[in-house]
């Protein structure tokens, strides 16, 4: 008999209606109508595990805000369906080739939970052609022919909602390609459904090293014992685990919350990797923050806490990811540079290199 501890149970018992949701949170009749309206436009489903982290009464609970449809999703008009223009950078359905040496292969349109801020809100939860085996094979064929590709990111939706067998079929095919050096997964399951990280999955993944995993925690309340166990299992299988957060208004756009998240991740041995400016996706405007919010956060982290805890602040774009911070380089000449430290103090260092040594360095 399946139990609460299996990912199959979690998937089969996802919350997709108001009456089930009421087992976890209080919902007024007006809120119920709003959830139904927004949920009809953008798919929703929440694992019982993730719902169990919600505050029963607080409508501003950061777990609730990420998972329960909000009427605000229907009240903003400035977002785009595909601001990163992924659809126009797809030589085969579901394969995104934006950078010279790497591709993203979307292998599933399903997720354990449908995050309200999702960049791929346009297709997650929808039955789309790009995630058929035929489409996945077309992507693998493309990678086989493109010898410049050394890095394949397997993404979705969430690839870890696929069975171990399906994932292994993809990995086995990719590992026949000599020029593919590393394979990365983007998955939110360690956060939304940590039961998915099983011994069987880890043993299977470890056969296809080097494998990397990037996951997606946004708030310290997501850093539970179950999540820590999932991360530990991946790490013990030799899989480095990084984290990509999205900066979300009302959820993690203040220093205390962000620090607590980043420090908690390090305690779980997950490396904070990216902090994304929220993409301009239709239905997500209520989460957007000014660019200065992210820049200020980085300013108050760098130097004030362990360097490993500080993610790169990223604005994503059709032209690629753009890391942003306020420059610490005040002045640069052939002879010297003026640098600013984290407390705002400046110092001058010499840049001059004896010409013979400079030539050797070229
Ligand atoms: S798990 Fe990832 S792809 Fe799926 S809805 Fe959340 S952010 Fe989007």
Describe the structure.
There is one protein chain. By secondary structure, the chain is of the alpha/beta class. It has 3 domains: 7-74, no CATH class; 87-323, TIM Barrel, CATH 3.20.20; 329-361, no CATH class. Helices cover 31% and strands 16% of the residues. β2 (102-106), α6 and β3 form a beta-alpha-beta unit. The longest helix has 13 residues, at 29-41. Bound molecules: iron/sulfur cluster. The site of iron/sulfur cluster has 10 residues, from loops.
Bound molecules: iron/sulfur cluster
**What is the succession of H and E elements?**
HHHHHEEHEHEHHEHEHEHEEEEEH
User: What is the CATH superfamily classification of the largest domain?
Assistant: Aldolase class I
Number of domains: 3
Rounded radius of gyration (Å): 22 Å
Q: Kindly, what is the distance between the CA atoms of the first and last residues, rounded to a whole number of angstroms?
A: 66 Å
Please count the helical segments. 13
Strand content: 15-25%
What is the CATH class name of the largest domain? Answer: Alpha Beta
| Stretches with pLDDT under 50, minimum 5 residues | none
What is the CATH T-level topology of the largest domain? TIM Barrel
Quickly give the CATH architecture of the largest domain. Alpha-Beta Barrel
Would you count the extended β strands for me?
Answer: 12
> Average pLDDT value?
94
Summed up:
It is built from 13 helices and twelve strands.
């Amino acid at each position: 008999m399946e139990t609460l501890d299996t990912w199959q149970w979690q998937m089969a018992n996802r919350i997709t209606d108001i009456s089930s949701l009421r087992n976890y949170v209080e919902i007024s009749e007006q809120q119920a109508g709003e959830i139904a309206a927004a949920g009809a436009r953008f798919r929703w489903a929440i694992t019982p595990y993730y719902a169990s982290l919600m505050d029963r009464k607080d409508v501003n609970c950061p777990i609730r805000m990420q998972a329960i449809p909000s009427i605000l999703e229907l009240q903003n008009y400035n977002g785009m369906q595909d601001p990163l223009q992924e659809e126009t950078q797809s030589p085969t359905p579901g394969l995104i080739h934006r950078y010279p040496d790497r591709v993203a292969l979307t292998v599933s349109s399903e997720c354990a939970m449908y995050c309200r801020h999702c960049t791929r809100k346009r297709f997650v939860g929808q039955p789309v052609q790009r995630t058929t085996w035929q489409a996945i094979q077309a992507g693998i064929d493309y990678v086989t022919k493109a010898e410049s590709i050394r890095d394949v990111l397997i993404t979705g939706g969430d690839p870890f909602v696929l069975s171990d067998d399906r994932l292994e079929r993809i990995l086995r095919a990719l590992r026949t390609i000599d020029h593919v050096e590393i394979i990365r997964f983007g998955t939110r399951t360690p956060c939304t459904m940590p039961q998915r990280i099983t011994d069987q999955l880890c043993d299977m993944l470890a056969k296809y090293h080097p494998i990397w995993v990037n996951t997606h925690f946004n708030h310290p309340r997501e850093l539970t014992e179950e999540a820590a166990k999932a991360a530990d299992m991946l790490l013990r299988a030799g899989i480095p685990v990084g984290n990509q957060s999205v900066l979300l208004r009302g959820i993690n756009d203040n220093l205390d919350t962000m620090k607590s998240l980043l420090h908690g991740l390090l305690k779980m041995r997950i490396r904070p990797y990216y902090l994304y400016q929220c993409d301009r996706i239709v239905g997500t405007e209520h989460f957007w923050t000014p660019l200065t919010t992210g820049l200020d956060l980085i300013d108050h982290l760098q130097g004030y806490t362990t360097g490993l805890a500080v993610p790169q602040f990223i604005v994503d774009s059709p032209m690629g990811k753009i890391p942003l911070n306020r420059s610490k380089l005040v002045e640069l000449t052939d002879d010297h540079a003026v640098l600013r430290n984290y407390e705002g103090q400046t110092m001058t260092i010499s840049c001059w290199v004896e010409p013979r040594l400079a030539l050797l360095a070229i």
